[in-house]
């Protein structure tokens, strides 16, 4: 996405975030949204569900775990089946990178990527940007360290692209085994020492250790990982005064972050990130529906 498109979505999401929590809009009345989650998800699935309902769309949560997909039906056959029901928007999470793009080529509906493999999680990056903007007023010029399991993180890739586009300086902090080759080509600084990597930064963004994607040799024990790369108050003192903490969740307390820091309402934006997710997804669904009505999406 270009900077004007990103800023337009963030500004619209900011308007939605100002609405009373119980207010229900109707301008997507008649639009049908199918939620298709091939991976377990709580916050993202519920957030898309709530966002669609708050702008008046009809929502169908496709029960993947009990569907024909579990009987051997391919993703393409599933796409044909769903297409026959004429949804307007498919929101999909899938464990394979590129699955959303592939599906979009075989259905008439617009497809929103809710996370694909290790590739991208664009609405997470948008809600992170909205969270930062509402707390600090701007993103341009900020120093942001993304720390932890970079190799297996779709959140990292989307945030590198989006926050860099908005003018932030991005550093990556990770064990060498969890830092993909060539990622410095995305214009980021890479560090293998947490204290060095977060020195003077305005925001420390932590990532979950995705052990389900690992082969078993990428990390030391969880205790050793916390000792070297887990964030606690002593390590955070290397960052800028009043530096803020983010985590896309679900977080492992005592592994990626000390529990006291996660619950520190003065420094932690973690709950605010979840809150902004609904507003961002309202803006995205609205934009996608508008493009379909214009015949361009």
Provide structural commentary:
The protein has 297 residues and is of the alpha/beta class. 38% of the residues lie in helices and 14% in strands. The chain has eleven helices and nine strands. The chain has helices at residues 3-17, 43-54, 75-83, 99-104, 122-136, 154-165, 194-197, 222-229, 233-236, 259-262, 270-294, and strands at 32-37, 58-61, 89-94, 110-116, 143-147, 169-173, 189-191, 203-206, 244-246. A five-stranded parallel β-sheet has the order 7-6-5-8-9. The protein has a four-stranded parallel β-sheet with strand order 2-1-3-4. Helix 4 (99-104) links the parallel strand 3 (89-94) and strand 4 (110-116). The model has no long low-confidence stretch (mean pLDDT 92).
What attributes does this structure have?
297 residues; five-stranded parallel beta sheet; four-stranded parallel beta sheet; 11 helices
Shape: globular
Please state the oligomeric state of the protein chains shown: single chain
Number of strands: 9
Strand order of the largest sheet: 7-6-5-8-9
Helix content: 25-40%
- Strand proportion: 5-15%
Q: Helix tally?
A: 11
The largest sheet is: 5 strands, parallel
On the 0 to 100 scale, the average pLDDT is 92
User: Radius of gyration, Cα only, in angstroms?
Assistant: 19 Å
- The chain-level structural class is alpha/beta
Ends apart, CA distance between termini: 14 Å
Low-confidence stretches: none
Topology as a string of helices (H) and strands (E):
HEHEHEHEHEHEEHEHHEHH
